[in-house]
Amino acid sequence: MKTNNKPLILVTNDDGFDAKGIESLIEVSREFGEIVVIAPDVSRSGMSHAITIKEPLRITNISENDNLTIYSTNGTPVDCVKLAINQILPKLPDLILSGINHGSNASISVIYSGTMGAVMEGCIYGIPSIGFSILDYSKNADFTASKIYARHIIRNVLKNGINKGTCLNVNIPKGLPHELKGIKVCRQTKGMWKEEFDKRTDPHKCDYFWLTGYFENLEPENDDTDEWALANKYVSIVPTIIDFTDYVAVKSLKNLENEILVK
Amino acid sequence: MKTNNKPLILVTNDDGFDAKGIESLIEVSREFGEIVVIAPDVSRSGMSHAITIKEPLRITNISENDNLTIYSTNGTPVDCVKLAINQILPKLPDLILSGINHGSNASISVIYSGTMGAVMEGCIYGIPSIGFSILDYSKNADFTASKIYARHIIRNVLKNGINKGTCLNVNIPKGLPHELKGIKVCRQTKGMWKEEFDKRTDPHKCDYFWLTGYFENLEPENDDTDEWALANKYVSIVPTIIDFTDYVAVKSLKNLENEILVK
Fold first, then answer.
1. How close is the nearest chain B Cα to the Cα of A257, in Å?
2. CB–CB contact B53 A45 (8 Å)
3. Which of B48, B192, B250 is opposite residue A185, by nearest beta carbon?
4. CB contact (8 A) between residue B246 and residue A166
5. What is the fold, at CATH topology level, of the domain defined by B8-190+221-258?
């Protein structure tokens, strides 16, 4: 692999290396630097921050062109980032991009998302990392508007950087460029998935269950949230950190410390 | 399944329904209520908050005794919680317990952890949820001290509750009861896993990679962290919330909103 003065950009996703969404992201990111892609060999949606411990990982070189090398792997999106940094890239990348995911990763979906798993892993390494998702699950989603906004955000981040330890969760409404109203920087909406398992019986009379469900916004009225922005045709950006600590509760639960004496 | 006035407690883990750690947790939790266990049929470590979308889930009834019913499933720890709440339990559980995990889930390990994935899923449903982990990867780890501390914490949470939206990440040092010094309520340590892939070549001359690595504490001097507590033989409790928003950056990145005009 050649190295030069252009930014080195790692691109990954969870829909697989041949998804239309990652093709769009590669197309945009090539304007900015040298691109290395490593992405799952098949769709790995819903993998969150999972890593592969019990099986060996394999890497396949799919293609190698000027400033664009593509690999696939049997691993998760987080494995992709670990493999890239530790086995493939000649140096730490200047930027990690994940997506463009076919489907929303706003609100609580961020925690289930393989797309955002990869982004957060990049963030743990201190590398500026951005996840892009479009609110359209279709394989043939129209990425015209997404590419315009992705280009804008990538340019801004390459120029201005992001604070170490912060990454970006970008969600883009369905629609043509002129239908979108701009960008809102906002917070993660309080919401949850309500499950409705689809229970079926196989030919051997054994039950099995398909996970389905629908998203419920628990604060639809609040206009500082990503779901509000998206419902109102704005691209949402949630600056994202990986600190699960409830700092208020650290103080309020101090009583737990004083109530046990084991001798 | 009978219902009565005892608390209904859901127990799960990521090491599998027959691990020694979950046996210890079942033993302690039976003192407090009616127990339903649903846990993975095999070890599912490192599954984080992953859900199973592309394959059907199956549930196997392992055993049914007075106030203790045990199921296994082919799903992830998060799937276990979703299946329990939506398919198995007669009502929402009063408490969800996960573990006792064979190995630490302190610091950044919380994001890779299937044990804590299940706990956070319970928290999304608004149910008091606690994850327990011991700093001992051995299958035959000694859970004597862990059981004493788990009993204390479960009793406290059943009596006092936890704020909705907060769950607990409890880690327990290796050691006999008299060697542990008590409990510290603390914050998640800044740290990361440094990867060292073990590269091998199979008989067909193809390379494969095993994920290995070691944990690096990025702030070993700070005594308000879970790693400090554990290194000093305290049980650590990190109150945990699921809001990834970087609220400081929501303000500082507002400039991103004004710089794009798409017509």
1. 5
2. yes
3. B250
4. yes
5. Stationary-phase Survival Protein Sure Homolog; Chain: A, (3.40.1210)
Please answer yes or no on whether A182 and B152 come within 8 Å at the CB atom.
no
DSSP for A120-186, written as a single string: HHHHHTT--EEEEEES---TT---HHHHHHHHHHHHHHHHH---TT-EEEEEE-SS-GGG---EEE-
Q: Do A54 and B47 touch (CB under 8 A)?
A: no
Distance of CA B240 to CAs A56, A69, B106, B121, B247, Å?
Answer: 32, 40, 11, 12, 17
CA atoms in the 13 A half-sphere facing the CB of A178: 1
Question: What is the dihedral angle through the alpha carbons of B82, A118, A183, B258, rounded to the nearest 10 degrees?
Answer: 150
Query: Which residues in chain A have Cβ-Cβ distances shorter than 8 Å to B178?
Result: 262-263
Domain spans of chain B, in order of start: 8-190+221-258
Window 146-165 of B: residues touching A by CB (8 A cutoff) are 148-149, 152-153, 156, 162-163
Q: How far apart are CA A127 and CA A161, in angstroms?
A: 10
Strand pairing report for A167-172 and A235-240? antiparallel
**Facing residue for B241 by CB, picked from A177, A246, A257:** A246
Q: Which residues of A9-34 are buried (b: 16+ CB within 10 A; e: fewer)?
A: bbbbbbbbbebbbbebbbebbbebbb
**Which pair of structure tokens corresponds to residue A51?**
């890593």
Residue in chain A lying closest to B150 (CA): A260
DSSP string spanning B223-259?
TTBHHHHHHTTPEEEEEE----B-HHHHHHTGGGGGS
Cβ of B244 within 8 Å of Cβ of A254? The answer is no
What is the residue-level pLDDT of chain B in tens, covering all 263 positions?
445 689 999 999 999 999 999 999 999 999 999 999 999 999 999 999 999 999 999 999 999 998 999 999 999 999 999 999 999 999 999 999 999 999 999 999 999 999 999 999 999 999 999 999 999 999 999 999 999 999 999 999 999 999 999 999 999 999 999 999 999 999 999 999 998 899 999 999 999 999 999 999 999 999 999 999 999 999 999 999 999 999 999 999 988 887 665 54
Residues 6+ apart with CB under 8 A from B222: B189, B228
| pTM of the entire predicted model | 0.95
* Residue B125 at interface with chain A, using a CB cutoff of 8 Å: yes
| Cross-chain residue pair A156–B263, CB shorter than 8 Å | no
Q: Cα distance from B32 to chain A (closest Cα, Å)?
A: 18
* Matching residue, tokens 């990392």: A129
Contact B184/A at CB under 8 A: yes
Fold of A8-190+220-244: Stationary-phase Survival Protein Sure Homolog; Chain: A, (3.40.1210)
Q: Which two tokens mark B213?
A: 């690595």
CA distances, B109 to each of A161, B3, B169, B216 (Å): 26, 37, 11, 11
The interface pTM score, or ipTM, of the predicted complex is 0.94
